[in-house]
Protein backbone atom coordinates (compact mmCIF):
# COMPACT_ATOMS: atom_id res chain seq x y z
CA UNK A 1 0.00 0.00 0.00
CA UNK A 2 1.47 3.25 -1.05
CA UNK A 3 1.07 6.49 0.86
CA UNK A 4 0.65 9.78 -0.93
CA UNK A 5 3.28 12.32 -0.11
CA UNK A 6 1.72 15.67 0.64
CA UNK A 7 3.76 18.60 -0.62
CA UNK A 8 3.55 21.89 1.18
CA UNK A 9 2.33 24.69 -1.06
CA UNK A 10 5.18 26.79 -2.33
CA UNK A 11 5.23 30.50 -1.45
CA UNK A 12 5.35 32.92 -4.36
CA UNK A 13 8.81 34.23 -4.91
CA UNK A 14 9.28 37.78 -3.76
CA UNK A 15 10.60 40.11 -6.43
CA UNK A 16 14.29 40.70 -6.16
CA UNK A 17 15.64 43.98 -4.88
CA UNK A 18 17.06 44.77 -8.31
CA UNK A 19 13.69 44.26 -9.97
CA UNK A 20 11.91 46.36 -7.36
CA UNK A 21 14.46 49.11 -7.80
CA UNK A 22 13.98 49.05 -11.58
CA UNK A 23 10.22 49.30 -11.17
CA UNK A 24 10.59 52.25 -8.83
CA UNK A 25 12.88 54.01 -11.32
CA UNK A 26 10.45 53.26 -14.15
CA UNK A 27 7.51 54.70 -12.23
CA UNK A 28 9.60 57.75 -11.42
CA UNK A 29 10.30 58.37 -15.10
CA UNK A 30 6.63 57.82 -15.97
CA UNK A 31 5.59 60.48 -13.47
CA UNK A 32 8.16 62.86 -14.98
CA UNK A 33 6.80 62.45 -18.53
CA UNK A 34 3.94 65.00 -18.17
CA UNK A 35 6.32 67.56 -16.66
CA UNK A 36 8.87 67.03 -19.43
CA UNK A 37 6.20 67.31 -22.14
CA UNK A 38 4.75 70.52 -20.69
CA UNK A 39 8.19 72.04 -20.09
CA UNK A 40 9.27 71.22 -23.64
CA UNK A 41 6.08 72.52 -25.23
CA UNK A 42 5.68 75.74 -23.27
CA UNK A 43 9.21 76.66 -22.14
CA UNK A 44 11.99 74.93 -24.05
CA UNK A 45 10.46 75.04 -27.53
CA UNK A 46 9.47 78.75 -27.38
CA UNK A 47 13.02 79.61 -26.33
CA UNK A 48 14.52 77.63 -29.22
CA UNK A 49 11.94 78.92 -31.71
CA UNK A 50 12.47 82.55 -30.71
CA UNK A 51 16.16 82.23 -31.56
CA UNK A 52 15.21 81.02 -35.02
CA UNK A 53 12.46 83.57 -35.64
CA UNK A 54 14.79 86.40 -34.62
CA UNK A 55 16.57 86.08 -37.97
CA UNK A 56 13.39 86.56 -40.02
CA UNK A 57 11.10 89.45 -40.89
CA UNK A 58 7.98 87.60 -39.79
CA UNK A 59 4.50 88.78 -38.85
CA UNK A 60 3.46 85.53 -37.17
CA UNK A 61 1.25 84.34 -40.03
CA UNK A 62 2.43 81.26 -41.89
CA UNK A 63 5.99 80.00 -41.91
CA UNK A 64 8.80 82.58 -41.76
CA UNK A 65 10.26 83.10 -45.22
CA UNK A 66 12.04 86.48 -45.36
CA UNK A 67 15.48 85.89 -43.87
CA UNK A 68 17.08 89.14 -42.67
CA UNK A 69 20.05 87.80 -40.74
CA UNK A 70 21.18 90.14 -37.98
CA UNK A 71 19.10 93.12 -39.16
CA UNK A 72 16.58 92.76 -36.33
CA UNK A 73 19.38 92.79 -33.78
CA UNK A 74 21.01 95.83 -35.39
CA UNK A 75 17.70 97.70 -35.49
CA UNK A 76 17.05 96.97 -31.81
CA UNK A 77 20.52 97.97 -30.65
CA UNK A 78 20.37 101.20 -32.70
CA UNK A 79 16.91 102.12 -31.45
CA UNK A 80 16.60 104.80 -28.77
CA UNK A 81 13.26 103.30 -27.73
CA UNK A 82 14.98 99.97 -27.01
CA UNK A 83 17.62 101.57 -24.81
CA UNK A 84 14.97 103.62 -23.06
CA UNK A 85 13.14 100.39 -22.15
CA UNK A 86 16.45 98.75 -21.25
CA UNK A 87 17.47 101.45 -18.77
CA UNK A 88 13.97 101.58 -17.32
CA UNK A 89 14.20 97.84 -16.64
CA UNK A 90 17.60 98.40 -15.05
CA UNK A 91 16.08 101.17 -12.90
CA UNK A 92 13.60 98.65 -11.49
CA UNK A 93 16.55 96.40 -10.64
CA UNK A 94 18.36 99.21 -8.86
CA UNK A 95 15.32 99.84 -6.70
CA UNK A 96 15.05 96.15 -5.84
CA UNK A 97 18.73 95.72 -5.02
CA UNK A 98 19.46 98.94 -3.13
CA UNK A 99 16.10 99.56 -1.45
CA UNK A 100 14.12 96.34 -1.24
CA UNK A 101 16.97 94.00 -0.27
CA UNK A 102 18.38 95.96 2.70
CA UNK A 103 14.92 97.05 3.92
CA UNK A 104 13.64 93.47 3.80
CA UNK A 105 16.73 92.28 5.69
CA UNK A 106 16.20 94.81 8.48
CA UNK A 107 12.54 93.89 8.84
CA UNK A 108 13.36 90.17 8.69
CA UNK A 109 15.78 90.57 11.59
CA UNK A 110 13.01 92.25 13.56
CA UNK A 111 10.40 89.60 12.71
CA UNK A 112 12.88 86.82 13.46
CA UNK A 113 12.90 87.88 17.11
CA UNK A 114 10.96 85.29 19.10
CA UNK A 115 10.02 87.92 21.70
CA UNK A 116 8.02 89.94 19.16
CA UNK A 117 4.29 89.42 19.59
CA UNK A 118 2.13 88.95 16.52
CA UNK A 119 5.08 88.32 14.22
CA UNK A 120 3.12 85.66 12.31
CA UNK A 121 0.39 88.20 11.56
CA UNK A 122 2.97 90.73 10.38
CA UNK A 123 4.57 88.18 8.07
CA UNK A 124 1.19 87.32 6.56
CA UNK A 125 0.25 90.96 6.07
CA UNK A 126 3.54 91.75 4.34
CA UNK A 127 3.39 88.64 2.16
CA UNK A 128 -0.22 89.22 1.06
CA UNK A 129 0.63 91.51 -1.91
CA UNK A 130 2.88 88.79 -3.34
CA UNK A 131 -0.01 86.36 -3.81
CA UNK A 132 -2.43 89.06 -4.96
CA UNK A 133 -3.21 89.37 -8.67
CA UNK A 134 -1.04 92.04 -10.25
CA UNK A 135 -3.81 93.24 -12.57
CA UNK A 136 -6.08 93.90 -9.58
CA UNK A 137 -3.26 95.65 -7.73
CA UNK A 138 -2.61 97.77 -10.80
CA UNK A 139 -6.22 98.90 -10.98
CA UNK A 140 -6.30 99.70 -7.26
CA UNK A 141 -3.05 101.66 -7.49
CA UNK A 142 -4.36 103.63 -10.47
CA UNK A 143 -7.47 104.59 -8.48
CA UNK A 144 -5.54 105.49 -5.34
CA UNK A 145 -3.04 107.65 -7.22
CA UNK A 146 -5.55 109.34 -9.51
CA UNK A 147 -5.09 113.16 -9.61
CA UNK A 148 -8.85 113.69 -9.30
CA UNK A 149 -10.54 111.84 -6.45
CA UNK A 150 -7.50 109.73 -5.59
CA UNK A 151 -7.07 108.94 -1.91
CA UNK A 152 -3.36 109.76 -1.88
CA UNK A 153 -3.85 113.21 -3.40
CA UNK A 154 -6.79 113.93 -1.11
CA UNK A 155 -4.66 113.14 1.94
CA UNK A 156 -1.72 115.22 0.69
CA UNK A 157 -3.99 118.18 -0.01
CA UNK A 158 -5.74 117.88 3.35
CA UNK A 159 -2.54 117.93 5.40
CA UNK A 160 -1.15 120.76 3.27
CA UNK A 161 1.80 118.81 1.95
CA UNK A 162 1.00 119.92 -1.62
CA UNK A 163 -1.05 122.80 -2.97
CA UNK A 164 -2.30 120.98 -6.06
CA UNK A 165 -2.86 117.33 -7.03
CA UNK A 166 0.11 115.30 -8.24
CA UNK A 167 -0.34 113.26 -11.40
CA UNK A 168 1.75 110.32 -10.23
CA UNK A 169 1.09 108.11 -13.27
CA UNK A 170 0.61 110.85 -15.90
CA UNK A 171 3.77 112.85 -15.31
CA UNK A 172 6.72 111.39 -17.28
CA UNK A 173 9.17 112.60 -14.63
CA UNK A 174 7.63 110.73 -11.68
CA UNK A 175 5.67 107.87 -13.29
CA UNK A 176 8.67 105.52 -13.34
CA UNK A 177 9.75 106.11 -9.70
CA UNK A 178 6.11 105.64 -8.68
CA UNK A 179 5.96 102.25 -10.38
CA UNK A 180 9.29 101.25 -8.84
CA UNK A 181 7.90 101.97 -5.37
CA UNK A 182 4.79 99.91 -6.14
CA UNK A 183 6.94 97.06 -7.47
CA UNK A 184 9.08 97.12 -4.31
CA UNK A 185 5.95 97.00 -2.17
CA UNK A 186 4.52 94.06 -4.12
CA UNK A 187 7.72 92.00 -4.10
CA UNK A 188 8.79 92.93 -0.60
CA UNK A 189 7.10 89.90 0.97
CA UNK A 190 8.96 87.26 -1.02
CA UNK A 191 12.31 88.93 -0.32
CA UNK A 192 11.39 89.04 3.35
CA UNK A 193 10.69 85.30 3.33
CA UNK A 194 14.09 84.68 1.71
CA UNK A 195 15.84 86.63 4.45
CA UNK A 196 13.84 84.92 7.20
CA UNK A 197 14.86 81.54 5.82
CA UNK A 198 18.49 82.67 5.77
CA UNK A 199 18.38 84.01 9.33
CA UNK A 200 16.91 80.79 10.64
CA UNK A 201 19.95 78.88 9.41
CA UNK A 202 22.15 80.67 11.96
CA UNK A 203 22.71 78.31 14.93
CA UNK A 204 21.35 79.68 18.20
CA UNK A 205 24.40 78.32 20.01
CA UNK A 206 26.58 80.93 18.33
CA UNK A 207 24.49 83.77 19.73
CA UNK A 208 24.49 82.24 23.19
CA UNK A 209 28.27 81.84 23.14
CA UNK A 210 28.68 85.39 21.90
CA UNK A 211 26.52 86.71 24.73
CA UNK A 212 28.63 84.84 27.27
CA UNK A 213 31.70 86.50 25.80
CA UNK A 214 30.09 89.91 26.19
CA UNK A 215 29.36 90.58 22.51
CA UNK A 216 26.68 93.18 21.83
CA UNK A 217 24.00 93.18 19.16
CA UNK A 218 26.19 94.96 16.60
CA UNK A 219 29.09 92.58 17.18
CA UNK A 220 26.79 89.57 16.82
CA UNK A 221 25.43 91.00 13.57
CA UNK A 222 28.87 91.71 12.12
CA UNK A 223 30.68 88.57 13.30
CA UNK A 224 27.93 85.92 13.32
CA UNK A 225 24.82 86.81 11.34
CA UNK A 226 26.39 88.39 8.27
CA UNK A 227 29.14 85.76 7.71
CA UNK A 228 26.73 82.84 8.15
CA UNK A 229 23.99 84.13 5.83
CA UNK A 230 26.38 85.57 3.22
CA UNK A 231 26.28 82.52 0.87
CA UNK A 232 22.48 82.57 0.94
CA UNK A 233 22.52 86.36 0.54
CA UNK A 234 24.21 86.04 -2.84
CA UNK A 235 21.47 83.68 -3.99
CA UNK A 236 18.80 86.06 -2.68
CA UNK A 237 20.45 88.90 -4.57
CA UNK A 238 20.34 86.88 -7.78
CA UNK A 239 16.69 85.88 -7.32
CA UNK A 240 15.67 89.44 -6.51
CA UNK A 241 17.51 90.79 -9.54
CA UNK A 242 15.85 88.32 -11.88
CA UNK A 243 12.42 89.02 -10.44
CA UNK A 244 12.88 92.77 -10.78
CA UNK A 245 13.43 92.40 -14.52
CA UNK A 246 10.04 90.72 -15.01
CA UNK A 247 7.81 93.72 -14.37
CA UNK A 248 5.58 93.31 -17.42
CA UNK A 249 2.29 92.67 -15.64
CA UNK A 250 2.54 95.64 -13.28
CA UNK A 251 3.63 98.15 -15.94
CA UNK A 252 1.11 96.87 -18.48
CA UNK A 253 -1.75 97.01 -15.98
CA UNK A 254 -0.98 100.47 -14.60
CA UNK A 255 0.53 102.59 -17.40
CA UNK A 256 1.01 100.35 -20.44
CA UNK A 257 4.49 101.83 -20.79
CA UNK A 258 3.31 105.43 -20.85
CA UNK A 259 3.16 108.32 -20.60
CA UNK A 260 5.29 108.86 -23.73
CA UNK A 261 7.09 105.56 -23.01
CA UNK A 262 8.55 106.92 -19.76
CA UNK A 263 7.71 103.64 -17.97
CA UNK A 264 8.35 101.35 -20.92
CA UNK A 265 10.40 98.27 -19.97
CA UNK A 266 11.78 95.52 -22.17
CA UNK A 267 8.89 93.09 -21.58
CA UNK A 268 6.31 95.74 -22.57
CA UNK A 269 8.52 96.77 -25.49
CA UNK A 270 8.53 93.17 -26.75
CA UNK A 271 4.79 92.83 -26.17
CA UNK A 272 4.04 95.99 -28.15
CA UNK A 273 5.80 94.76 -31.29
CA UNK A 274 4.43 91.23 -31.05
CA UNK A 275 0.83 91.60 -29.84
CA UNK A 276 -0.25 95.26 -29.65
CA UNK A 277 -3.23 95.89 -31.91
CA UNK A 278 -2.30 99.56 -32.35
CA UNK A 279 0.63 98.84 -34.64
CA UNK A 280 0.11 98.33 -38.38
CA UNK A 281 1.39 94.75 -38.46
CA UNK A 282 2.94 92.52 -35.80
CA UNK A 283 6.69 92.10 -35.94
CA UNK A 284 7.26 88.76 -34.25
CA UNK A 285 10.75 88.42 -35.70
CA UNK A 286 11.87 91.76 -34.29
CA UNK A 287 10.19 91.02 -30.93
CA UNK A 288 12.01 87.68 -30.78
CA UNK A 289 15.32 89.43 -31.46
CA UNK A 290 14.70 91.84 -28.58
CA UNK A 291 13.74 88.89 -26.38
CA UNK A 292 16.99 87.13 -27.26
CA UNK A 293 19.00 90.24 -26.37
CA UNK A 294 17.10 90.51 -23.10
CA UNK A 295 17.69 86.83 -22.34
CA UNK A 296 21.41 87.05 -23.12
CA UNK A 297 21.76 90.08 -20.85
CA UNK A 298 20.01 88.27 -18.00
CA UNK A 299 22.17 85.18 -18.59
CA UNK A 300 25.38 87.21 -18.46
CA UNK A 301 24.38 88.80 -15.15
CA UNK A 302 23.48 85.36 -13.81
CA UNK A 303 26.81 83.88 -14.85
CA UNK A 304 28.66 86.77 -13.25
CA UNK A 305 27.07 85.76 -9.97
CA UNK A 306 28.84 82.39 -10.13
CA UNK A 307 32.36 83.53 -9.18
CA UNK A 308 30.92 85.83 -6.52
CA UNK A 309 28.91 82.97 -5.02
CA UNK A 310 31.90 80.61 -5.12
CA UNK A 311 34.13 83.19 -3.44
CA UNK A 312 31.63 83.85 -0.67
CA UNK A 313 31.14 80.13 -0.08
CA UNK A 314 34.91 79.62 0.12
CA UNK A 315 35.34 82.44 2.64
CA UNK A 316 32.46 81.18 4.78
CA UNK A 317 33.95 77.66 4.78
CA UNK A 318 37.22 79.05 6.07
UniProtKB/TrEMBL annotation:
SUPFAM superfamilies: MetI-like. InterPro entries: ABC_transporter_permease, MetI-like, MetI-like_sf. Keywords: Cell membrane, Membrane, Transmembrane, Transmembrane helix, Transport. It is found in: Cell membrane. Residues 86-305 form the ABC transmembrane type-1 domain. The chain crosses the membrane at residues 26-48, 90-112, 124-146, 174-199, 220-241, 284-304. Gene3D superfamilies: MetI-like. This is Sugar ABC transporter permease.
Amino acid sequence: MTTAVMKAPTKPRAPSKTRARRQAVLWGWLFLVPLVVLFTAFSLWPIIASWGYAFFDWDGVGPPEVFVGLDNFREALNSSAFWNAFWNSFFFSLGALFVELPAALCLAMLLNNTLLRGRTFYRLAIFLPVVSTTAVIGLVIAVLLAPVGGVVNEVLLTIGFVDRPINFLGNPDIALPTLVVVDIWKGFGITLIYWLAALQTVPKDLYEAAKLDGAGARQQLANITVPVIMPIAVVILLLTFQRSLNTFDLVQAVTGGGPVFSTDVLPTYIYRYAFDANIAAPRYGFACAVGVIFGVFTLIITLLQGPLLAGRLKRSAQ
